[in-house]
Write a structure and sequence with these properties.
Layout lengths: L1 E6 L2 E6 L10 E5 L2 H9 L11 E5 L3 H10 L2 E11 L5 E6 L2 E3 L2 E3 L6 H13 L5 E2 L4 E9 L2 E13 L14 E7 L1 H7 L5 H11 L6
Parallel strand pairs: 1-10, 2-4, 3-4, 5-11
Antiparallel strand pairs: 1-2, 5-8, 6-7, 6-12, 9-11, 10-11
Helix pairs in contact: 1-2
Length: 209
């Protein structure tokens, strides 16, 4: 088992199989149980300007992740991997990077409801169907002196391409585009690493070490 937490342009990999460390370059790797526990209880590199990927080896990956979550301010968000009938994915351009529509889950709101609402608010389209099993991602950052961990639930969605796309400019969205695999591959360097990882899997893009 393995899970990722993305920070800046890098990621933390928590895995129960050391072979996962061979495919990428890491700033440091922790395998001793005491050091792994210390890191999960005080995960400062996730919120600093640390340069490089981080690897943690642990027999219980979920327990490590839960410890990090307990020691950060967790924000729950939801969004959509939205596909049309031509196999294109809905993308948005925000603050110099390509992204996918998502946003914070409101208090008392169902996560799946928030995902559909955020997509429709940020892009102006109407969703025709929403899948039931979301993919969950994690992204850490600091804001107002708080260490935050964003837990995002991504639902696969369907929508017609024959709709007017209306960017939510108050959320700094300046462009919306249905993107096919070939175009995504060309623009991949302009996607946030977490979003690129999701779309690599969606489009079945081959990854190189």
């Amino acid at each position: 088992m393995k899970t990722f937490i993305y920070f800046a342009n890098h990621y933390l990999l928590i895995t129960d199989n050391k072979i996962n460390f061979k495919a990428d370059k890491f700033g440091f790797i922790l395998t001793e149980p005491e050091k792994v526990v210390e890191f999960t209880e005080h995960p400062r590199p996730l919120f600093s300007n640390f340069e490089g990927n981080i690897g943690l080896y642990a027999e219980d990956v979920e327990a490590c992740l839960e410890t990090i979550i307990r020691n950060t301010e967790t924000i729950v968000a939801a969004g959509g991997i939205v596909e049309n009938d031509q196999g294109e994915v809905l993308t948005i351009f925000r603050k110099g990077f390509w992204d996918m529509p998502k946003g914070k889950v409101e208090e008392g709101e169902k996560i799946i409801t928030a995902a559909e609402r955020e997509v429709e608010e940020e892009t102006g389209i109407k969703i025709s169907s929403v899948g039931e099993s979301p993919r969950i991602t994690y992204h850490s950052y600091s804001i107002k002196r708080k260490d935050c961990l964003k837990e995002t639930f991504w639902y696969k969605m369907k929508a017609s391409a024959n709709q007017k796309l209306i960017p939510q400019t108050e959320e700094d969205i300046t462009e919306i585009k249905w993107m096919k695999k070939s175009e995504y591959v060309k623009k991949k360097e302009f996607f946030y690493p977490l979003i690129a990882a999701l779309l690599d899997d969606y489009f079945e893009v081959e990854k190189f070490s």
